[in-house]
């Protein structure tokens, strides 16, 4: 399996190389040259398997010979052993044909753990073999950063720097990033919003001298391995509702477009997905784009679902690459136009996007009302991101096709919003009980590339 860049000008890489490289050297994102397909029998054979066994079968065709089967199985086993739920990603029924896929039973209580725990193990195995050292820099609106710090804290051969928007993550998210005391992890509160963090991260990758000097690696969904690990739960959940003999749809609370893009990969592999619904909060650039064809950035408006307060949606580039017939030059041109505020998607590409995706948005009031209504009717307490998904799913769903909404974080990560909606403050699980008592360690930084690069050079232990 080979990986190519969405901008068509970077070296073609193997899985392991793409995983360690992060952003392609032409500024694009790596995608598989071809998507492997599963037959109906392959999909049916996933029924009844453990999450780990299903993960092995779904991911194996993408990794080639990077890890032998024994090693890959044992990496997967270690990645998911810390999850609190035996099913890893359990389904809950909300209504006759609406299901919630709970993705928050990992160590940092968000869907990011599914990929990050795996990547931590993959990096460790690969770096131990090569003896190389890397500096991981991540950009986060709250959940990727905590998951990355949890996955890489104390590991050999790796330093992790996480840029988060100062004052724009929840207290639980911040403490998850600032309280671990391992010397190789560093939380940086950037004076800006998430898009600034992600832009500086991409600037660092595009500064080839710097990336080579520090051995820069990425664990955002820039990294194909992140997307790949997220493909698995589309299969396990659809199969448990009757796939391949029954179609299902998914609604995905969306910001950086990695999670829903993983769903589109599952569909192209042969999983019978009827609709993939993009659900956004009031930062609704993706919904506006799907509706009008105009992708124009606007001011980020802080919301009660802060992890989705994103305007420059990184993985949309991967979807555009496919929608433009895998024309790297066309994608590079669009990304150039994005630097000055946005672009218009061609009619053909928009039609291609609409073949795969529907979209909807939830206002702040609708999000709160959904948390309150669902708690009252079903007893399920949603985090605000998941509530955005449930609200949009209810609007968009076809009663004939089961709808699965991804519940992307635990409500206890966003207790203020949940308390406002329900009157009850959700508590953290016992294993995180000391979070509020631990000392915090954080560096405040300006939104300035050179200053950030100096900070990373100074603090790196490797
Ligand atoms: C809780 C939560 N829900 C939804 C999203 C959106 O996911 P994606 O960025 O993959 O679209 C994020 C951020 O990634 C998140 O942290
Ligand atoms: N919502 C994310 C933003 C970064 O997304 P990623 O999937 O590219 O890592 C977060 O919580 O940090």
Automatic annotation (TrEMBL):
The keyword Amino-acid biosynthesis applies. It comes from the Bacteria. One of its GO terms (biological process) is threonine biosynthetic process. Its cofactor is pyridoxal 5'-phosphate. Residues 2-80 form the Threonine synthase N-terminal domain. GO terms for molecular function: pyridoxal phosphate binding; threonine synthase activity. Pathway: Amino-acid biosynthesis; L-threonine biosynthesis; L-threonine from L-aspartate: step 5/5. Keywords: Amino-acid biosynthesis, Lyase, Pyridoxal phosphate, Threonine biosynthesis. It catalyses: O-phospho-L-homoserine + H2O = L-threonine + phosphate. The modification N6-(pyridoxal phosphate)lysine is found at residue 112. Residues 92-332 form the Tryptophan synthase beta chain-like PALP domain. InterPro entries: Ser/Thr_deHydtase_PyrdxlP-BS (IPR000634), Thr_synth_N (IPR029144), Thr_synth_N_sf (IPR037158), Thr_synthase-like (IPR004450), Threonine_Synthase (IPR051166), TrpB-like_PALP (IPR001926), TrpB-like_PALP_sf (IPR036052). Its EC number is 4.2.3.1. PANTHER family: THREONINE SYNTHASE FAMILY MEMBER, THREONINE SYNTHASE-LIKE 2. Belongs to the threonine synthase family. NCBIfam families: thrC. This is Threonine synthase. The lineage of its organism: Bacteria, Pseudomonadati, Pseudomonadota, Alphaproteobacteria, Rhodobacterales. The gene is thrC.
């Amino acid at each position: 399996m080979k990986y190519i860049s969405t901008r068509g000008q970077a070296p073609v890489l193997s899985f392991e190389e793409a995983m360690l490289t992060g952003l392609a050297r032409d500024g694009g994102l790596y995608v598989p040259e071809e998507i492997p397909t599963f037959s109906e029998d392959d999909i049916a054979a996933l029924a009844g398997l453990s999450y780990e066994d299903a993960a092995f079968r779904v991911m194996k065709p993408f990794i080639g010979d990077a890890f032998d089967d024994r090693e890959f199985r044992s990496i997967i086993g270690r990645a998911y052993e810390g999850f609190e739920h035996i099913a890893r990603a359990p389904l809950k029924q909300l209504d006759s044909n609406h299901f919630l896929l709970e993705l928050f039973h990992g160590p940092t209580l968000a869907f990011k753990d599914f990929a990050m725990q795996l990547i931590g193990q993959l990096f460790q195995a690969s770096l131990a073999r090569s003896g190389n050292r890397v500096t991981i820099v991540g950009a986060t609106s709250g959940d990727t950063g905590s998951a990355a710090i949890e996955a890489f804290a104390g590991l050999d051969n790796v330093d992790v720097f996480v840029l988060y928007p100062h004052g724009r993550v929840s207290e639980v998210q911040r403490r998850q990033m600032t309280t671990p005391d391992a010397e190789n992890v560093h939380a940086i509160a950037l004076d800006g919003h998430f898009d600034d963090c992600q832009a500086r991260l991409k600037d660092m990758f595009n500064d080839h001298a710097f990336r080579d000097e520090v051995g820069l690696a990425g664990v955002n969904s820039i990294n194909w391995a992140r997307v790949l690990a997220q493909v698995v739960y589309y299969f396990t959940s659809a199969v448990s509702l009757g796939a391949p003999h029954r179609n299902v749809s998914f609604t995905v609370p969306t910001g950086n477009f990695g999670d829903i893009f993983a769903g589109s990969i599952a569909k192209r592999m042969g999983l019978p997905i009827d609709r993939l619904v993009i659900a956004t909060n009031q930062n609704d650039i993706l919904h506006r784009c799907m509706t009008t064809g105009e992708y124009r950035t606007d001011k980020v408006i802080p919301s009660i679902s802060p992890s989705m307060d994103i305007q420059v949606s990184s993985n949309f580039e991967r979807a555009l690459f496919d929608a433009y017939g895998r024309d790297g030059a066309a994608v590079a041109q669009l990304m150039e136009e994005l630097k000055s505020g946005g672009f218009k998607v061609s009619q053909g590409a928009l039609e291609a996007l609409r073949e795969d995706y529907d979209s909807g948005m939830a206002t702040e009031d609708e999000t709160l009302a959904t948390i309150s209504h669902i708690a009252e009717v079903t007893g399920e307490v949603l985090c605000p991101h998941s509530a955005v998904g449930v609200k949009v799913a209810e609007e968009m769903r076809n009663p004939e096709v089961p709808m699965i909404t991804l519940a992307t974080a635990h409500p206890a990560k966003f207790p203020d919003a949940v308390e406002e909606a329900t009157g009850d403050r959700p508590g953290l699980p016992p294993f995180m009980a000391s979070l509020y008592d631990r000392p915090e360690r954080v560096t405040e930084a300006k939104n300035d590339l050179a200053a950030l690069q100096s900070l990373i050079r100074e603090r790196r232990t490797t």
